[in-house]
Amino acid sequence: MVIKYSKEVDAIYIQFSDAKVFESDEEKPGIILDYDESGNIIGIEVLDASKKTSQPNGIVYEVA
């Protein structure tokens, strides 16, 4: 999994797979889900991230 924040466009992208994006859907305003050819979610993009999270450039990683 890869998580990237772009200050230039104020977007966070969470990548679950290296598969090629086949289709993208805006699930809610500013939340875009990327799917592979089999319909699996391979990425999530959050637009206007600084308005939707308190720390767009800080990540807390936990394993349960």
Automatic annotation (TrEMBL):
<protein>
    <recommendedName>
        <fullName>DUF2283 domain-containing protein</fullName>
    </recommendedName>
</protein>
<dbReference type="InterPro" id="IPR019270">
    <property type="entry name" value="DUF2283"/>
</dbReference>
<dbReference type="Pfam" id="PF10049">
    <property type="entry name" value="DUF2283"/>
</dbReference>
